[in-house]
Amino acid sequence: MPARTGREYIEAISAAEITVEIHGERTTGKVAEIPAFKNLIQTYAALYDLQHEPGLRDVMTYDSPTTGERVGMSFLQPRTAEDVVRRRLMMEVWARSSNGMLGRTGDYLNAAIMAMAGAADWFAQADPQYGSNIRNYYERVREHDLLLTHTLITPQANRSKAVSQQAEPFLAARIVEENDNGVVIRGARMLATIGPIADELVVMPSTVIRGGADDAPYAFALAIPTDTAGLRFLCRESFDLGRSSFDHPLASRYEEIDAIVIFDDVLVPYERCFVLRNPELCNGIYSETSAAAHMTHQVVTRTQAKTEYMLGLVSLLTEAIGIEGFQHVQEKTSEVIIAVEIVKALLRAAEADAAENQWGLATPAWAPLNACRNWYPRFSQRFPEILRQLGASGLMALPTEADAFGPGREDVERYLQGAAIDGIDRVRLFRLAWDTCLSAFAGRQSLYEYFFFGDPVRMAGALVASYDRDPYKARVSALLADDELAIEMLHAEPVEP
Ligand SMILES: Cc1cc2nc3c(=O)[nH]c(=O)nc-3n(C[C@H](O)[C@H](O)[C@H](O)COP(=O)(O)OP(=O)(O)OC[C@H]3O[C@@H](n4cnc5c(N)ncnc54)[C@H](O)[C@@H]3O)c2cc1C
Is the model's pLDDT at 480 over the cut of 70? Predict the structure, then answer.
């Protein structure tokens, strides 16, 4: 089956028997009819349609090596630096189409599965079957253009104790038994974004939490269809309140629901397992396979689109109310310009220094990507702050569509006009700014940017531990040694002639 259309995605997700709990109701099947997911499903469908847009064919798809049909470019296993760029050009189309607001477009996890399949021999260390499993899974996902969600994190219950030391053994999802058919999993994992509207759930280790020998029953990597028997998605409340795109311009399009994943004795066939009972392999899964580099390549591509959006929004907002000439406004706008350039430069550096990994895949350079994934979670918190500081009361003087096009229209036109914009357009613009910096949707976006790739505090620790600082230490040591020599010479006893 070639790259999917939006309609094919909607048909597949409508036919799946996914069990979801949201707003007090538990349903199985027909997720496309649940109001909280309807708009998001349409948004995701539009992404799939972009794969068939005339003029984008060669950007979005390539010839499958097994069937010759056109499949999604984010599945391409890059052999050259040009392939790495081809991957990014595709990812850019999806990222720009949503201004970076969607964190879980298919390319995010396609990148991970693509890299892991390239490193199939790494999985085969424990058992050759696992190597075949990951390769077969990648091919299946590629050929059916499946949408994946993932869950990595154990419930927060008590973070001062290891997963195996929690109050209940089955709090965090763990292996209950292994039988002739596969492994049975019971317990919970946090937080599958887009879980209820995805085709497949990938259950992977955390990017930052290291497991020890006692954690073996919790240490696995596997994948199952989201409608597997016993699997449930317990959702948070939706921030898409069913309002128009005038009122909630972002939440009405891009509200990616998050869900707790509950495994009620879920049977996972062995052919869907990639690592089992192996904390050591779990600890290395992202770095050893280069999945981290390829996923971060996608993340930074999305980040670039989002930062560019922020610059456009800040610029239009400051022009709209005539504040762009003030110095502190320019200083704040410059922060966003600098962020755009930093992200672009890091992405470019990663691609310029792309090199073959030990499994033969061209891989973007990790150091600039790692710098970006450590810097952006913190810096991105500044965007909503800047918008709030510049938008001020304009972010609250915001009649709804019903008022702006109803009895309040005359007032809106007169009292909400801007320096370079009429009243209706100004409300439209400021509602967009509000949904970017103040609404529930905006709050979730900030939290997402801060945490989605792991705890930034522990990511910083990992960066420091892995970064080669020896050359820099050596230079400083050499300078100190020079000083020492100079001091020694200064204080040396004068030599008798
Ligand atoms: C909007 C959103 C969407 C997400 N989507 C997904 C998803 O799709 N799939 C998925 O798997 N995950 C997802 N996550 C989860 C994400 O991976 C985690 O939030 C992240 O890894 C941090 O883990 P935690 O939330 O359990 O925080 P915790 O680990 O519980 O941390 C809470 C606080 O305690 C501190 N802390 C805890 N332990 C330590 C320690 N050992 N050392 C130092 N400080 C510590 C942290 O620094 C932090 O300040 C999502 C998160 C968010 C917010």
Answer: yes
